[in-house]
Write a structure and sequence with these properties.
By secondary structure, the protein is of the alpha/beta class. Helix content is 33%, strand content 26%.
Amino acid sequence: MKNRLFLLCFMTLITTGSLLCSEILHEVTILHWNDFHSQNIPWRPTHYNPDNHEVGGYAYLAAVIDSLRDIYPNAVTLHAGDDFQGTPISGITRGMSQIAILNVIKPDFFTVGNHEFDYGLSRLLALKDSAEFKMYAANLRQSQEGQRLFKSMWVPENFPFDVAIIGLTTDDLYTLCLPTNLEDLYVENVTETAKYLTDSLTQEGIDFIIAVTHLGIEEDIKLAQNVPAIDLIIGGHSHTYMNKPRIEGNTYIVQASSQGRYLGEIHLQTDGKTIQTFDFNLLEIRPDNISPNTKVLALVEKYETQAGDTLNQVIGELKSDWTREGVESNLGNWLTDAIRTYTGADIGIQNNGGIRKGLSKGPIRIRDIWEITPFGNNIVTFTVTGKEICNMLDVQVKQGISLQFSGVSFIADTAANKAKKVRVNGKRVIPWKKYTLATNNYVGEQIEKYLGLSPRQIHDTGIIDRDLFIKAVKDQKIIDSNIENRITIR
């Protein structure tokens, strides 16, 4: 009898313990996207798209968010930055088109990305006042001792447990943006800011912390390693496609590619301290089987109408696909040739980061040029010696070659970190001779970073790069670009 009573008590304790364990597991649903880059209308990817279907478009992304919010009313929607820049409409409205659309979707959390500064800090702060959603970036101040320009964190009140979501943007802003666009902005170290915030939160009894970051996947990994108090990092900036989370220690890291092709969907369980289960999917946005959000669709059409028929005007024909992949690309060759031809410079230069998309062969529209080079940078020129050309190419080889060139060829000896057999216009470089370089003002303002050159007088030609490229297409009419082995890797 005693044994039966003991067994009954023991089983009761086990059952009660199991019930208590199940009761303290909380389910959380998170929807997230990043690096939308004003791709408001559906588009057709040239990679990983064997059936050539269209993807994305804000009206369709919004519709999927609406459906999931209906199924999961407590779902949290998080945006990891860079909604601005990429298509003409963002440039024409200086970001207002994106704020208006997001005002309909109303993400719970928006971390400021580097491209949100493309129209200047003052413009961004004005747009922030028009936003009906909150912008976050804990590591940005008005000045070193000044106030924070954006909110640092959000502590949701409707969660069944204590959780904090913090926003962090890249501390490399001064090399990613035009310095003149940042005014007196002070950028704090991401890791130090995160440590300070997580220490403060854990002291207050908040043990579950999410970081919505615009750092890039490699920096997210470092953040997880250095700040293990963060349970989940939802990232952006590197446009990384992830079909499963990266796990560093107890920290989960995810990202949802770019341009609205995918929406990240997370279902996790937590005891309020650590993640117990984690289900992650990337939902491809397929307009062919989605009914659009009508309010967002009306806004998209309104802004596209503002752009007028001019953007869709065909100005030339492309005989071979323009691609931007590789150390040397045929699109990079064409762009730098156009810069060199227009300016009469000895060498034309274009940064890879300023080439935002490729183009399939066929008609070339004004819109395509806007989308290939959307930043509206001015073309500038400056003078270098032959010796400086060799030195700057050495810097590029050491850094990994992030520029495209016209008028110069060389062998990149990656073992020695040297540029060898340097030729300008097919001739040996004369060390004391002066040569003219032409590029965009983004590179021009950062010649030490890209080229290892000392500051010097830089002449602004006054022409915007995309206007130059549009004129070049109109002049050439039929274009067949090739790889010419301007850069040979040894």
